[in-house]
Amino acid sequence: MASLAFLLPGGFIFLSFFFISADAATKFYQFNIQVNNVSRLCHAKPIVTVNGRFPGPTVYAREGDSVQINVTNHAQYNMSIHWHGLKQFRNGWADGPAYITQCPIQSGSSYMYSFNVTGQRGTLWWHAHILWLRATVYGAIVIMPKPGTPYPFPRPAREETLVFGEWWHADVEEVVKQGNSLGLPPNMSDAHTINGKPGPLFPCSEKHTFAMEVEQGKTYLLRIINTALNDELFFAIAGHNLTVVEIDAVYTKPFMTSAILIAPGQTTNVLVHANQMPGRYFMAVRPFIDAPIPIDNKTATSIFQYRGIPNSVLPTLPHLPSPNDTSFALSYNQKLKSLNTPTFPAIVPLKVDRNLFFTVGLGMNPCPSCVNGTRLTASLNNITFVMPEIGLLEAHYFNTKGVFRTDFPDKPPTPFNYTGAPLTANLGTTKGTRLVKLTFNSTVELVIQDTNLLTVESHPFHLHGYNFFVVGTGIGNFDHNKDPAKYNLIDPPERNTVGVPTGGWTAIRFTANNPGVWFFHCHLELHTGWGLKTAFVVENGKQADQTVLPPPKDLPQC
Length: 558
Ligand code: C2O
Known about the structure:
Elements: H1 2-7, H2 12-18, E1 26-40, E2 43-50, E3 59-62, E4 66-73, E5 81-84, E6 110-116, E7 122-128, E8 138-144, E9 158-167, H3 172-182, E10 191-194, E11 211-214, E12 219-226, E13 232-237, E14 242-247, E15 250-257, E16 260-262, E17 267-273, E18 280-288, E19 300-306, H4 326-335, E20 354-366, E21 374-380, E22 383-385, H5 392-397, E23 430-432, E24 436-438, E25 443-449, E26 459-463, E27 468-475, E28 494-495, E29 497-500, E30 504-511, E31 516-522, H6 525-530, E32 533-538
Parallel strand pairs: 1-4, 3-8, 9-12, 11-19, 20-25, 22-23, 24-32
Antiparallel strand pairs: 1-2, 4-6, 5-7, 7-8, 9-10, 12-17, 13-16, 13-18, 14-15, 14-17, 18-19, 20-21, 25-30, 26-29, 26-31, 27-28, 27-30, 31-32
The structure holds CU-O-CU linkage.
Residues 82, 84, 97, 127, 129, 265, 462, 464, 519, 521, 523 line the site of CU-O-CU linkage.
Domain Plastocyanin-like: 33-146, 161-308, 407-541
Enzyme class: oxidoreductase
Pfam family, one: Cu-oxidase_2
């Protein structure tokens, strides 16, 4: 069945009928990591792909299915693939971040990612989780609800997946190497893309424009994914409102909006009613950046095309929020609420066993060979995370000493006015592979606080192995005495990646009921690379079914 998805990329409806009466099944995929020449923006270049496709193949599953994806690496880079947002209960071995849950798959080797899709349905995605290779190695994951369980919204006439990405003219790995050796951010991407295509506002895009045909009067479900490496994005369709119904594979209370905001790592499902004069309307994507850093103003477009309208009709552009529209961003995020019905409850931890407070710090270290004599760096609670040389999960499972420490501090060493006047001082940042140890089933509240160290900036944080509830957010310094009183503990949005606002904070809660080692990092590749990351070690529970599963036999070795 899985192979049908390859043959019929547009045959989603067919597939969903095909699956309708099927019980839980095993879906098998073969992913060949290879290098292919791809041309965009008047240039051709070799890129790393899965099965020669860009974006890569969509993985279809149904809630309750088992999925087996055999990844064979034919490229010159070591590889690992992360199934972003899948909870991987007890099964970090299939999570994928290189050196966290596995050693990378060496050139010429294979590894079978084998996992169950339990208690989740909706849109997620997969991507390379090593170096910056996810620039071209990514694709969608579509999890259909269990047979006989309808969506909690009207059934759409058709579904379409819209995957937003970034494109560089040059070899991305070279771009990163250059940035690192200069001590500067690597060059910005040359284009944004929708389903791998930048659209007609970029040169040589005739063949590289994605179009979606619609019929007047019908309603469509768009599964939207932001795979960009470094850009939060606004998205809108000219003349059409969007109704948000799901984020990060969790249903939300539906609300209508003229545009959505989506951070790298996040997904958003929207319904769109084709209720306008038949025509051609641009679907457009442009970055949101409200920090004092260079603004990237490039707009990727694709076309929402009513049936029977010739391609000669010029599409109109939507009105996107301006790139620095903080108030749109804050009010949009405020509207996100869990559906919280008996079938899809929001089980928010009400009492907290462990309070964590992490400060985000950007900084500069001395670097005599760099252009400014400094190299940019990043830290959480003044610790710049150092990648280990073997997988942390393996070290944890086999109790190998000396690979990591579990003394990551619960709060910054010295409190300060986090979002006050720009702070350039280095607060005594140290390096280390230091993790946070959590007791099985403990409830955790984590406040992530942006700081004005070097510059304030918005940071999309992603937690592997879990969803969490976003119980509160605000601008300025988090106030332990006042802010918790304003938390939403009834229907907060549940997700796996959350944007910490520029110069502000976000509070999340989760129950540490998934044993293993789970990466926690900023999903801006730029910042992850500089060390804005740590990991949680969640201990085993007492019962046999609360412990980390044994490692698969083909687990790659370093
Ligand atoms: Cu989508 Cu650790 O990543």
